[in-house]
Design a protein that fits this description.
Layout: E1 8-12, H1 22-35, E2 44-45, E3 51-55, E4 58-62, E5 68-73, E6 78-83, E7 89-94, E8 106-111, E9 116-122, E10 131-137, E11 142-147, E12 158-163, H2 170-176, H3 184-200, H4 204-218, H5 225-241, H6 245-258, H7 265-296, H8 301-311, H9 316-327, H10 337-357
Antiparallel strand pairs: 1-9, 2-3, 3-4, 4-5, 6-7, 7-8, 8-9, 10-11, 11-12
Length: 358
């Protein structure tokens, strides 16, 4: 993860306005922190007795008497917050609003010393409503967001680690997508992202996760067959790009099983034809390799005698060059060692005779 912090000037933590009824705010915050729901990520205390808490659409940093020191007024309801142990960094998450503006379903990281926003990201993987804890490691500059699972119940939380640019750690993200309560459409979106990455570079971890996601999606009844089939089509395209023809065929055929109208029949026909050609070519290559290996294991005394006789007619540098090439020869899979020796010897003979004449 990157340790680079990118400051922006879009948002600032402000001091409470004189128009605000501080006594009323203190009272509300005191009651809120005393009676907040058990699993709500709110009213977080620092080592120096600062408190980070929220009321409706406003985030507060207060002293130990709930006197507001700084605040952030959002256009969306705040659903979770967290603060580092020293009080330097704050994270808050907001709900989605009807305007879908910059504050809608957003996670924001603040620096309280500069009062600036460090990073902001909409629609992060953990969402907002299920957040149970936000832990900020200010030394490693990492954020861990713990979310609940509706199927497993409270206390069975999943954590995703983010850097200070709110980019998720892939290993924690992979584990997050095993949550039983994740919707099939969210899983499908994750599968599409993995396919896009695999288009660029095949990674075993991505392939394994993609396979597991699609196996899980095939068992889901609440996803559109059209959408799932299109994902398999994209998967087939990806495999075809990397010349993994058998994998591409399987992906296309699976997509057709889910949606018989999927537009891959022409591509599938061409792939099967190319796959047959490739299979025949691979078979020939295998036979040639086996024959070459078999020849390499046979000592040909007659050839060795002829070889020594022809080498004796060459000069010392030519003989040294031949033995160097022979010592470093590699299996060609088509030509045997003897055939490689013949090619090298004939090349040296031509070179020696040419220089001898000139």
């Amino acid at each position: 993860m990157s340790n680079k912090i990118e400051l922006t000037n879009n948002t600032i933590l402000i001091e409470p306005s004189k128009k605000i009824n501080l006594q009323e705010i203190r009272q509300k915050l005191s009651i809120k922190c005393a009676h907040k729901p058990k699993y709500e990520a709110n009213c977080i205390l620092t080592d120096n007795y600062l408190t980070c808490s929220f009321l409706d659409k406003t985030l507060f940093i207060t002293d130990d008497k709930f006197n507001p020191l700084l605040m952030y007024e959002s256009t969306s309801y705040i659903t979770a917050c967290g603060i580092s142990r020293s009080g330097k960094y704050i994270v808050c998450q907001t709900a989605r609003n009807n305007e879908n503006d910059n504050d809608s379903n957003t996670t924001i990281l603040f620096d309280t010393t500069t009062r600036q926003e460090i990073a902001r990201k909409k629609d992060i993987e953990t969402g907002t409503n299920s957040t149970r804890l936000i832990f900020i490691d200010e030394y490693k500059q990492l954020i861990q967001i713990y979310v609940a699972d509706a199927v497993l119940g409270e206390g069975n939380n999943f954590a995703i680690t983010y850097d200070f640019n709110l980019c998720a750690n892939e290993d924690t993200l992979r584990k997050f997508y095993t949550k039983p309560d994740i919707s099939p459409y969210t899983l499908n979106n994750r599968a599409i992202k993995l396919i896009d990455r695999l288009q660029i570079n095949i990674q075993d971890k991505d392939l394994q996760e993609l396979t597991e996601l699609l196996n899980r999606l095939k068992l889901c009844k609440n996803i559109s067959p059209l959408q799932l089939s299109l994902t398999y089509k994209s998967m087939g395209n990806m495999y075809e790009k990397h010349n993994l023809l058998d994998n591409a065929i399987l992906a296309y055929e699976t997509g057709l099983t889910i949606n018989p109208k999927l537009t891959v029949k022409k591509a599938l026909k061409n792939l099967k034809s190319n796959s047959c050609i490739k299979e025949h070519s691979d078979k020939i290559q295998k036979q040639l390799k086996e024959e070459s290996t078999k020849k390499n294991n046979i000592y040909d005394e007659e050839w060795e005698n002829e070889l020594n006789k022809r080498l004796s007619k060459l000069d010392e540098p030519s003989r040294k060059a031949f033995y160097h090439m022979r010592a470093n020869r590699k299996e060609d899979n088509i030509l045997s060692y003897k055939e490689l020796d013949i090619l090298n010897l004939e090349a040296l003979e031509r070179s020696y005779n040419y220089h001898k004449k000139n």
